[in-house]
Every structure is written in C-alpha cells, then in structure tokens.
Amino acid sequence: LSDTRQKLLENFDAEVHERLKVNLRESRAYLDTYEQWLWEVTRFFLKDKAEFSEREYSFMLKQNPFAGEQIPAGPYRIGKDIQDAHVYRPGHPLAQRILSSVRNLDVSQAEIVFDYSGNPEIITILQPLVGKSGFMRVSSLGIQALEMEDYTLVATLDCTGQVIEPEVAKKLFRLSAKDIMKSQVKDQAVLYALGQIEDGQKQVVLAKISERNSGHFDEEVEKLEKWAEDVKKAIELDLRKLEIDIKSAKTNARKIVNLEEKLKIQRDIKEMEKKRNEMRKRLFEAQDDVDQKKEGLIDKVETLLKQSISHKELFTIHWKVV
Asked: I want to staple 31 with a disulfide (CB 3.0 to 4.6 A). Which of 35, 138, 281, 301 is the partner?
C-alpha cells in the first residue's frame, strides 16, 4: 500500500501537489512555494557558512554572513508551531538581509540548462518547453507612492520568437539547472523584443494598480457619503421631532390664560428653538466635516498618482530545457 501511494504521488502534477499540500518525500514537512524559494536562496547564499538539515528544513550558522551585525547562530527552522528554534520565514530579519543581498548581486549573463526530464515532479505546463531554448530577462519593478510595492517582471521568448507567459517561465526555476557557459546576449532584435515584453508587463502592473486604487477611492467615497447621509438623516429626524414639539408648545401657549404659565411655556419654547438652531448648525458642520474628509481623500489619491517608479534588470539568460 505504501509503494502504491508513493507511485501515485510521484505521478501527480506539481499543481496538484500544491493544492493538496502533499510532498513527494513523506519524511519532510510540506513547504509552500515562497518558503521553498526562501530555503533554496538561503542554501545558496550561506553555502559553507551554515550547516543545513534537509530533513527538518533547519540550519545553524557556522559563520556570521554579515560582519559587524548581531546575527544569532541559530538554530533556524522553516515551519509552523516551532518552539526550539528561530522561526525562519520571508519576513525574518535574517531572511530579509539575505534576500536583499541576493537581489543586489551582479549576475553575469549565461546559458542555463533546466533539467525537466530528471525532475521528480510532473509539471504539465512545462512539458511543451522540453527540447526548446530561448531567452529570458528578469527585472525588478519598484513603485513608490504611499508605500513601496515590488514586482518581478519575467520576459521570455523561445528561439522562434514565441512569447512564453510569465507564470510558465517562473516555473522553470522549480527545476534543477546548471550554468553551462557564460553567454552574452548580443542580438539586438532579441534584446528589443525582451524590452517590449517587459514594457507590456509593466503597463499591466500599472493598470492593475490604477484599477485597484480607483476601486479603493470609490469605496472610500461611498463609505463617506453613506456616513454623511446617516448623520444628516439622524439630525433631520431630530429636527422634525423638535419642530413638531415647538409647534405643539406654541399652540398650547395660546390656549393658556394664566400669564405665569404662559411665560413658563414661552421660556420652554425658546429653549427648544435654541436647541433647534444648534442642530441646524450641527447639520452644516457635518457637511463641512464631510467636505474636509473628501479633500483629504483627494489629497491621498493625488499622492498615489505621483508614483516614483524604479526598474532594475536582475539578469538575462539564454535558456534550454532538456
């Protein structure tokens, strides 16, 4: 039964593994995509500076990778409900330092061979690329408005000029690979095509951000207008009740003969009229408050429109899939 189950798992598509959260190696805890990438990057960066336990997804530092900084030796472990080690995740300070350092590495252009045939998982979406080759440029796109947002652009072509979708190209990095030679991409037509693909992806990102911000703006305006309408209705309702009370009090005052009682009711009427005037004033103040909030919202949106955009090429490769 165990062998049958193992064979079944080995023949699942990698996408199925992600959805079901199972792992080919039963002895290893499941890692989501980002944790797996972090693990691989950390192993690359630390190399001989740490001792790694593949079974537990943990490591101990033998040498501080950032001289002059206070970096605990460990242990560090990827996973959940960890009590006896530093919980190592993308947001951990050490992980952030490593990711930042790797991102700023000067990566030479090269020819990379991705090994699909020797991969233990079936990744259906990559099967059409077996035996093909092409070019890829990966760049980072930073957009600074109210806060910093980072995006990765993956521009990929095969040798026939066919564009490979970014989500397909990204999955190539789930395969083992080797750098077979340094290979400068000099074909200007290829470089131009990669640039055009990048520009298209950049415009898609900017359009999505604009659409998202527009949606947020509409939601905020709608919430503001609903709040203003609720405040207005509440005050107007109280005003109507007070107007009825004032009118009723004036009618009763005309019926009273006793001067002392008539004066008392007139004083009450004056107090109600004073309260009515204050409520009318509150109604105008509430509208002014709404206008101020709208102005603040408009200022915020104008800040979003004043985006600072940075673009950095990370690497360009000539790729093959075998």
From this structure: 35
Distance CA 142, CA 150 (A): 5
**Contact call for residues 311 and 139 (beta carbons, < 8 A):** yes
Q: What is the mean predicted confidence (pLDDT) over 77-105? A: 87
State the number of CA atoms in the 13 A half-sphere of 11 facing the CB: 6
- Ranges of beta strands (E only) in the chain are 50-53, 58-61, 76-77, 86-87, 110-115, 133-144, 148-158, 163-164, 176-182, 308-321
Q: For the residues 140-168, what does the mean pLDDT come to?
A: 88
The H or E element spanning position 118 is none
Measured between its terminal Cα atoms, the distance across the chain in Å is: 33
- The 8 Å CB, 24+ separation contacts for 288-292 are 290/224, 290/225, 290/227, 290/228
Place of tokens 């004083």: 267
Is residue 75 within 8 A of residue 59, CB to CB? The reply is: yes
Hey, what amino acid is at 35? E
- How far from the centroid of its chain's Cα atoms is residue 299's Cα? 23
Average pLDDT value for residue range 228-234: 82
Higher pLDDT, 108 or 88: 88
* pLDDT band, residue 188 (cuts 50/70/90): confident
The stretch 202-220 carries a mean pLDDT of 85
Q: Residue 321: beta bridge partners? A: 114
Diameter over CA atoms, the chain: 111
Residue 263, CA distances (Å) to 46, 250, 274 in order: 91, 11, 16
Distance separating alpha carbons of residues 126 and 3, to the nearest angstrom = 27
Q: What is the pLDDT of residues 268-277, one digit of tens each?
A: 888 888 888 8
CA-CA distance, 129 to 119, in Å (whole number)? 14
